[in-house]
Amino acid sequence: MDLNTLRSTVTVLAFACFIGIFLWAWSGRNRASFDEAGRLPFADDTRPAPDAGNVPNLRNSNHV
């Protein structure tokens, strides 16, 4: 096996992986989970941050 055959084989395998990932991403059975993940940044999260009460107030310091 020479170097060009190895390069061609790797190129074909990488293209096959690309096509496989493309088909997986566009398959109908994954649509619901991808739609839910797409709406996640717009979700209304009303819970406070875990350490919101422990942040020191640096604006009222008496340093000059």
From TrEMBL:
Keywords: Membrane, Transmembrane, Transmembrane helix. The keyword Transmembrane helix applies. Residues 41-64 are annotated as: Disordered. The keyword Membrane applies. It comes from the Bacteria. CDD domains: cbb3_Oxidase_CcoQ. The chain crosses the membrane at residues 6-26. InterPro entries: Cbb3-typ_cyt_oxidase_comp. This is Cbb3-type cytochrome c oxidase subunit 3.
